[in-house]
Predict the 3D structure of the following.
Amino acid sequence: MPQIETMTMDEKIAIGLKALELKKQGKLEEARQVQKQIPLPPWLAKNIKEVWKAGDFLKKNGYNLSEADAAYGPGWLDDAARASGQ
């Protein structure tokens, strides 16, 4: 499967550096929220959903799933949850 990216590496690095700075300032929750702006790699999002059964956790906690959505199609997280009875 080709790598699908919705954000450039430079954008991801900039977000990571901002989160790191917030962490250094003791703003841990704000740093976590900023980190969640970086899209999860599709393979990782799928693994979290299938192995850990935590797809709802990803959605409810604001993780960026744009690359997984692009790779697996809209609703991939919801469809799997319904099929597995979650």
